[in-house]
Amino acid sequence: MRIAPGNLPEPQTEYDAKAIAFCRAWISGQSTFALYTSGSTGAPKPISLSRRQMVASARLTGQTFGLKPGDQALVCLNVDYIAGVMMLVRGLELDLVMTVIEPTSNPIRLLSADSELIAFAAFVPLQMQTMLEEPAETLPVLNKMKAILVGGAAVDRTLADRLQVIDAPVFSTYGMTETVSHIAIRRLNGPHRTEVFTALTGVEIGTDDRNCLNIKAAATDFEIVQTNDVVELVDSRHFRLLGRADSIINSGGVKIQPERVEEIIARVLANEGIANRYFIYGLPDERLGQQVALFLEKQEWSENRLENIKTAIREEMGPYALPKKIVTVPVFKETSTGKIDKKEIVSAYS
């Protein structure tokens, strides 16, 4: 479905109808909107956002990425949640021409012949991974964009390495429903690739006594939003994302950040050129309190690969961080926003 400035088409599908209903509410001047958090770290909860907050966020995105009236945007994230909704708001506020596609693993496959004119798009990591498996079809479209955003979940090292074939700038985004989408970005490809997030113009960041990030910006109505994301604050505008405070595993009194273990595993897999979904989680243990568990999707790993992983983890983090249990799952369950639903998987398979 194509939405041009001042022209709302008749919806052809149920999903189109949801997108058009939001656009009509926005154009009518509605002042507040109720959205739900993604539910990836807890039960989804309703949040009321003001039009003022959403406009501030949309305009900051336009300024950051140099978007101009008439630029084409691809909207292929779920419009029931903040990422998809804010793509619609950006289109409406910045006078972009929007192509709206119901979320699918490779949205570019569904585009029309003039798709190479698209200037701006946002994807989740799984979509990027799938599109890069068909480079002849997708790269001509991706390479002509002004900016490509990847958010909703962490970008692992294997995917980041594969993104180097894209000429257009690709950015990992940091944000949440409470901050009205992204408030910081980091470049994933090219010579300016970095592990450090940069806060967008006008966004103030700091940390609490747990080293968890807090945020204040126009998009938060200049109120402080306190997160559970543990960061290394480089300076007043830059930070490294280390993991979540509420995911820390306490094994025998040793606190282990699972995201750090996952990063070590990612480096080993990248050296082998392996793309495989996995995650680290803390399971109850009578002796240790919690034990480190490795959840794998689809296939078991060879003893040699597991030994290489254990060696790398032991060298960097010590023996307590080694996975004590390995669980293989046929297909990872996902949330409606495309994130791995860790709690559901752990509940079903442990």
From TrEMBL:
Keywords: Ligase. GO terms for molecular function: medium-chain fatty acid-CoA ligase activity. Residues 33-193 form the AMP-dependent synthetase/ligase domain. Residues 279-339 form the AMP-binding enzyme C-terminal domain. One of its GO terms (biological process) is fatty acid metabolic process. The keyword Ligase applies. Belongs to the ATP-dependent AMP-binding enzyme family. This is AMP-binding protein.
